[in-house]
Amino acid sequence: MSKGNGKCGVSRAVCLEGKVAMVTGAASGIGLGAAVRLAEAGAAVALLDIDTAGGREAAAQIGKAGGRAEFFHCDVTSAESCRKAAQGVGESFGRIDILFNNAGVIRRKSVVDLDEKDWDLVLAVNLKGVYLLSKYVIPIMAAGGGGSIINTGSGWGIKGGPMAASYCAAKGGVVNLTRAMAIDHGKDNIRVNCVCPGDTDTPLLRGEARQLGLNEESFLASSADRPIRRIGTPQDIADAVLFLAGDMSGWISGATLVVDGGGTA
Questions:
Q1: Is residue 48 a contact partner of residue 90, using CB atoms and an 8 Å limit?
Q2: Which among 223, 205, 99 has a CA at the least distance from the CA of 152?
Q3: Catalytic entry in 128, 167, 170, 191
Q4: CA 237 to centroid of chain Cα atoms
Q5: What radius of gyration, in Å, describes the C-alpha atoms of the chain?
Q6: pTM
């Protein structure tokens, strides 16, 4: 963990000591980067994923660095799995202050070529998963006095993209669901915001190259074609999540924070 002021390892302005954060899709990529960053800021972190081995390894990584982390198996497409995960985290940590709804999948196909099962999968993980986990976490968060929910959208949730119809539909839904949740739960002192990454070097992005039949390294190089001439890193997105999780964003709710090196500009 990085060094800084106090036990958090960061400035007191973004210190999350005493807070409990839940992160979905936490076994790799942006989820792992955010879990590590939130732990560096002093939060106890519950890591949720369907990848049990990866999730346990991630929790152990945070623990070895001096943080508190536990892994909880969770399929965000299952109401019962989300209910059990929320209940388990609440019981283990005593509260939930931060929820990062990040789990996601992508299928790079047009509506003509896309199978119905893949449409259902992408919508279930990326959009339904946000609904389900929020449904069970919000009562716990409200009972604790409020908190911050951050949903992972995408630049393609704001504008369209090629050969990704189901993903664009799901992420567009996440962006507007975020606004609706912010309106409904502000009375509970719960802020709800959306972070919209551009192309970020993760297993998900590298998997896109394989789906499209493209050379992985060439695909990643082309993803750097944006005003800030590089591809994103999980740490870039994690810093935005940290900002939205903490007190520095205390009067921000219903917002969409684009983190894409100027790509949508």
A1: no
A2: 99
A3: 167
A4: 9
A5: 17
A6: 0.94
Q: Which residue is listed with tokens 């069970």?
A: 136
Q: Biggest alpha carbon distance in the chain? A: 55
Residues 85 and 30: beta-carbon distance below 8 Å: no
Q: What is the pLDDT of residue 5?
A: 42
The C-alpha atoms of residue 9 and residue 5 are separated, in whole angstroms, by 6
Q: What is the DSSP string of 116-127?
A: HHHHHHHHIIII
Q: Which of 151, 138, 238 is nearest to 190 (CA)?
A: 138
Provide the pLDDT for residue 202: 86
Residue with tokens 């500009």: 265
What are the pLDDT digits (tens) for 113-144?
999 999 999 999 999 999 999 999 999 999 99
CA-based end-to-end distance of the chain: 33
Residue written as token pair 């074609």: 225
Number of Cβ atoms within 10 Å of the Cβ of 252 = 15
pLDDT in tens, 52-83: 999 999 999 999 999 999 999 999 999 999 99
Q: Which domains does the chain have, with CATH numbers?
A: 16-198+235-245+254-259 (3.40.50.720)
Does 136 qualify as catalytic in the annotation?
A: no
